[in-house]
Task: structure prediction
Amino acid sequence: MAAEGTGISWGRVTLKPVPEFMPTEWHILYRFFRDRELADWNGAKPIRLPEWLFRRVMLEEEQTGERAGFGVLDERGELIGSTELYDLRPPLPLTPTVGTLGVMIGVRALWGQGYGREAVMALLAWAFTGREAPLTRVRLTTFGHNRRAQRAFLACGFREVGRSEGPGHTDVHMEITKGEWE
Result:
């Protein structure tokens, strides 16, 4: 792990905090969140907000501490995705010890090439060591049919802790503790 400015690097990726985005990066991230296929993989609907409101909502969530979001930059410094910790528990003003991880590589040509795994490792490094009050556990949920994601999360040290049935799909719940990560 290497720090570059306020970003965190791991392998070929650098995480850039959302509040530091340039206008072109906001536009790229907005396109990712409007993409139907990307939304489907995240169990969401494509956003319909105008870009200015999307930016405002994201920045407000950062300021209130509801989430810690980062852009995933490749080795050329291009925005290729995003990663975040959200659903921090206990909620502020208490000190969170648990967070939920989300990651998305928005450039399809880069899927399956390890960028998501490197982004997850960088985010875990930040969550467990790069915060004033490090988290003790990070969790996530992915679809049962998304085996590529599950293999990537297992390679990062996550373990499966359960499954649940959703409407028309199975959710796989995974987590990693700070001790397991170390």
